[in-house]
Write a structure and sequence with these properties.
2 copies of one chain form a homodimer. Chain A is an alpha/beta fold and 357 residues long. Chain A has helices spanning 7-14, 18-25, 33-45, 52-59, 75-90, 104-115, 128-133, 137-144, 168-181, 197-212, 234-248, 260-272, 290-294, 306-329; strands spanning 64-69, 94-99, 121-124, 149-152, 162-166, 187-192, 222-225, 254-257, 282-286, 300-303, 343-346, 349-351. Chain A folds into 3 domains: 7-50, no CATH class; 60-165 and 306-346, 3-Layer(aba) Sandwich (Rossmann fold); 168-304, Rossmann fold, CATH 3.40.50.2300. In chain A, 46% of the residues lie in helices and 15% in strands. Chain A starts with 6 loop residues before the first helix and ends in a 6-residue tail after the last strand. Strand 2 of chain A pairs antiparallel with strand 2 (94-99) of chain B. Chain A binds a DNA duplex (30 and 30 nucleotides) through residues 6-8, 16-20, 22-23, 26, 29-32, 35, 50-51, 53-60, 117.
Chain lengths: 357, 357
Amino acid sequence: MKRKITLKQIAKELDVSVSTVSKALSNSKEISEDTTQKIQAFAKLYNYKPNNIALSLKNRKTKTIGILIPEIVHHFFSTVIRGIERVANRRGYNVIVGLSNESFTKEIINMEMLANGSIDGFILSISKETLLKQDYHHFNATINQGMPIVMFDRVVNEVDCDKVIVDDLNGAVKAVKKLVENDCKNIALITTMDYVSVGRLRTQGYLEALQASGMEANSNMILKIDDSLDVENHLEVLETEIAHFFKSNPSIDGVFAVNELYAVTAMKVARKLGLKIPDDMQVIGFTDGVLSKHATPSLTTVSQHGQKMGEQSANLLIDRLEAEEAETEQYFTNNEKKRDFIKMVIETEIIERESTK
Amino acid sequence: MKRKITLKQIAKELDVSVSTVSKALSNSKEISEDTTQKIQAFAKLYNYKPNNIALSLKNRKTKTIGILIPEIVHHFFSTVIRGIERVANRRGYNVIVGLSNESFTKEIINMEMLANGSIDGFILSISKETLLKQDYHHFNATINQGMPIVMFDRVVNEVDCDKVIVDDLNGAVKAVKKLVENDCKNIALITTMDYVSVGRLRTQGYLEALQASGMEANSNMILKIDDSLDVENHLEVLETEIAHFFKSNPSIDGVFAVNELYAVTAMKVARKLGLKIPDDMQVIGFTDGVLSKHATPSLTTVSQHGQKMGEQSANLLIDRLEAEEAETEQYFTNNEKKRDFIKMVIETEIIERESTK
DNA sequence: ATATTTAACGAAAACGTTTTCGTGTTGACA
DNA sequence: TGTCAACACGAAAACGTTTTCGTTAAATAT
């Protein structure tokens, strides 16, 4: 019912000026002890809390960081958010999230909506459509307006900003090498179309690992799935394609899949074809999510440490924000001070479970 | 580099007043066509967008809604967020999310942080610890400060506000009846401790359905899991408990579990014990998430329609916000206008998959 | 007794908008 | 020639803070 109380109201009620109230509440020694006490007591009684919006306007910073991701119903992205929220909260920031839904336009709209004062900086992962279009002007535009960006996972060289990535290539190498060590002779790859950079890197890792192990890469041991927008029956299509793939390549005894879903689906299909896992076929996925942990058999995966990525991203962003702030306060604007952009690599780790020997 | 341009700067540059610029940009007919054109062209050139914070301060509303949930790495909660974000975005709102992490204190801190002007209203689901403590003063406090709240899923009678819940009781009834229809004679329940209301209701539904089917509820056919904070080895404990449960009740031929995890774990354990699903034992879970869809065999579940819950919650909240606004603008404050609090029930639906006959 | 410091407070600007209420300049009209 | 609209614009207040810079009165120093 009753709106939150303001300085002005307190001032009026106690018959002092707004400035006096403000100073008293911040324990300024300009104000006598008597009035300070009186004012603080009154403020406490009415549960006064300064209005954040007014503070934001005055300080020209919102203590809020914007997250912009392609999708939220996704284990990896939600762990990243959790990581961001954790350090943001600890360091006194709020997070506001926008979803691009893998759409270029929604990405732009969301950015413009948030860039007009609502936040101090962005943490984002690029949408698929944007990667396809290769149009990154909106990122550079907001950076030029003085708003720092940290990109994670799906990053791109065309934008100059801090980045946090997982070592996709090396993770893939590790996975494939593990399969090689486990005596797999014919290792297949199930991957996506190449325009999402992570898919490309993981594919590259697969190829490099094979070569390093003296095995030959064979193009028909690679299954490329078109992960476009056929949301509904996508699962069935996937199963059919994998089944066909396995049937035409009966020698396959090891599978590396670039994500969790492909991996568990591969296991499912394999089982339907009468293959025992891990005896007849070993499987390793990428991204350690719920599926991997609870599948039967549970899935050996390359863990991306999403939460850690989120935490690092948030630290990177807030560090930069606070550096800027310090810089502004300095009388001699020392240009040398500007921190270079950092590309932080989060190491992957293989989590061994039942799908490998 | 260059900060975003403001009205004042445009005004200075074009040698007119701030008011003129403001009016010109909103196509006021107070301003001549000439100057309007000139100003609009200039504004477009410099990509002027009004500052959201300033607008928020002036309008005393932020067009932002706060989401406060216990956990984000959770399929159900993330679908709810997706739903909220969808309608929020469509209706011109942003969302800012806070995580209570199931903690009472973090819930309060988050609420206080957001309630000081950052948002226009809350959509939240109560943390477990709060439910345990049964201390709801912070909810009522923020409501009394004029900030509307919509609660979803985990709601509570002690707080007067709009609520969106799933029909837990009826969903459980449906599930158990389905098992009965499928010729299950000994139906077990795997549930949680009772303090989370949804667990209690689902348990109650199980009991009612049994009674309605003329079957007797047997207390040792019910397994209560203590879902406290033993995050790490929780899974093993769970498997052990379920295994023990199944062994001491060999007659079980049907299982209703109050969540997805318990259901798939039950299937896993059952298989290890040599039971075929669904032939020897049929299983139904609650909450339709990734696990249900991709488990082998895939799991029959009661779908909660999380996204729909989110959408309805958002609509409820925004409706109320805009009703308030209209009310404020009215000269005669018509008290009768106040909308009663709504409790909206989302119907559940059984999604049949391979774990039932 | 006069000059100077100190204590305690208030006025006003600023952050970026929108909106209400002037105000001065036209042109038309009597 | 004088009156009155209409037109085009500007000044100022307001949203809720913080902070700088007065200003007054009392206390101290000379």
